[in-house]
Design brief:
Layout: E1 6-8, H1 9-28, H2 32-47, H3 53-62, E2 72-74, H4 77-99, H5 103-123, H6 127-137
Antiparallel strand pairs: 1-2
């Protein structure tokens, strides 16, 4: 007997909106410290979702206040965590490049994350999730959950 796998899409959307907002601010203000903090938040969220700052804001402020309502759907959480990890690595790498004096390449990586997070937030397409499922279909170890688990 398997347990139904679910994800609260409102948590993901809160994470995306917060990430986009902070990274756009970091770029506009040319503030690599802010992008670095955002990258760290993303990496923590990927490693231990319950400790993620944006997740905590959703659960302890936005949801109780009725500002954002839960939208729980059948889904695998692992692809979303993988996407968060990839985004966090790209933002962190971009920040390090900016700090190392390779600003154009660094900000370009950060802008790619803004674009991909925006695609997910506004169009519902998650590049990291798609990559996760491709790796699953190729049989890569560690990518053990398939899309078919939630499409039944």
């Amino acid at each position: 007997m398997s347990t139904e796998r679910v994800v609260d899409q409102s948590v993901i959307r809160t994470n995306q909106a917060s990430t986009i907002t902070l990274l756009v601010l970091a770029f506009v203000l040319s503030a690599p410290l802010l992008s670095g903090i955002t990258g760290a938040i993303m990496l923590i969220s990927a490693a231990v979702p319950s400790l993620g700052l944006f997740t905590r804001i959703y659960h302890h402020l936005l949801k109780p206040a009725g500002i954002v309502r839960p939208r729980v759907v059948r889904d695998n959480p692992e692809p979303h965590r993988f996407a968060q990890l990839l985004g966090g690595l790209m933002v962190t790498t971009g920040t390090l490049l900016v700090l190392a004096g390779v600003a154009t390449a660094g900000w370009a990586l950060i802008i790619v994350v803004i674009g991909l997070a925006s695609l997910n937030l506004f169009a519902g397409w998650c590049a990291g999730c798609t990559l996760y499922y491709w790796l699953n279909r190729l049989g890569v170890p560690g990518f053990s959950h398939s899309r078919s688990e939630v499409s039944r």
